[in-house]
Amino acid sequence: MRSTAASRVSVSAFGALVVGMVATPLFAKAGSQRAALAVLVVVSLFVCATADAFVTHGSRALSVAAAVVVVTFCVEVIGSTTGFPFGEYDYGDALVPQVAGVPVAVAFAWAGMTLVAHGTFASLVGGTLRRVALMAAAITAWDAFLDPQMVGEGYWTWAEASPAWRTIPLVNYLGWFATACITSFVALQILGVPPRVRTLPRSVYATLAVLSTIGFVFFFDDITVALVGGVAMGAGVVWSYVAPRRSTT
Q1: Direct distance between the N- and C-terminal alpha carbons of the chain, in angstroms, rounded to an integer
Q2: Contact 13, 48 (CB under 8 A)
Q3: pTM of the model
Q4: Which residues neighbour 93 within 8 Å (Cβ) at sequence distance 6 or greater?
Q5: Given pLDDT bands bounded at 50, 70 and 90, which one contains residue 161?
Q6: What percent of the chain has pLDDT over 90?
Q7: Cα dihedral sign for 172, 202, 26, 8?
Q8: Distance CA 193, CA 198 (A)
Q9: Predicted confidence band at 237 (pLDDT cuts at 50, 70, 90)?
Q10: CB–CB of 213/146 below 8 Å?
Q11: What percentage of the chain exceeds 70 in pLDDT?
């Protein structure tokens, strides 16, 4: 019964995620409506991924979600205060609520994406290190879209740095990968290796890739980001369909 309810919640949250992403370009750039929709997308991602993981892993999924929220919130506080490990940046006040100057939604985005990556990629390769690396790479690929969009909305700003891409220091992506390795390792240690690629997490990852690509081509006016992000996330989508599942040992 609980699994059935969780499945319904995850599907409903997936629908809300899609609605939020599709609706975002319909409102003015950097407006309050877009900020509200950004929070809706993050909450929907988190609820969808957590509920879907609950179907397979039970209460351990809740443990992973909570652990990743706490860990990444601490990383974001350190990062926005010291510049390590992402580079120097500051959050604006558009995304609320905030604690210690960090939007709470950011940590929930990390947790949702970690669970999506676990459900999509953890069963595709053998060995903990390879699984962690693949999951972390898939999570970092998302940031090829996320950071340019969020910077464009003014949700956070970067100090001038070199080398950089779209004003975002390249060290940011190393920081993302390192943080994603931690969250991926936590997920694998608590949840183990899923027996197969789960349909909903893979659909979520593919949807993020497709809608983000369309958004940057037609609405955010940056073909380069569309190409880079589309290739980065698209490679993960293709791999999730064609790669044979490896041993769980």
Answers
A1: 31
A2: yes
A3: 0.96
A4: none
A5: confident
A6: 91
A7: negative
A8: 12
A9: very high
A10: no
A11: 97
Angle between helices 32-57 and 104-121 (to 10 degrees): 40
Q: Write the single-letter amino acid at 242.
A: V
Q: What is the DSSP string of the chain?
A: -HHHHHHHHHHHHHHHHHHHHHHGGGS-TT-HHHHHHHHHHHHHHHHHHHHHHHHHHTHHHHHHHHHHHHHHHHHHHHHHHH-TTT-SEEE-SSS-SEETTEEHHHHHHHHHHHHHHHHHHTTSSSSHHHHHHHHHHHHHHHHHHHHHHHHHHTSEEE---SSEETTEETHHHHHHHHHHHHHHHHHHHHH---SS--HHHHHHHHHHHHHHHHHHHHTS--HHHHHHHHHHHHHHHHHHHHSPP----
Angle between helix 128-153 and helix 171-191 axes, rounded to 10 deg: 130
Q: Residue 245: which pLDDT band, with cuts at 50, 70 and 90?
A: low
In sequence order, what are the residues at sequence separation of 6 or more whose Cβ sits closer than 8 angstroms to the Cβ of residue 190?
60, 63, 64, 67
Q: How far apart are CA 114 and CA 183, in angstroms?
A: 7
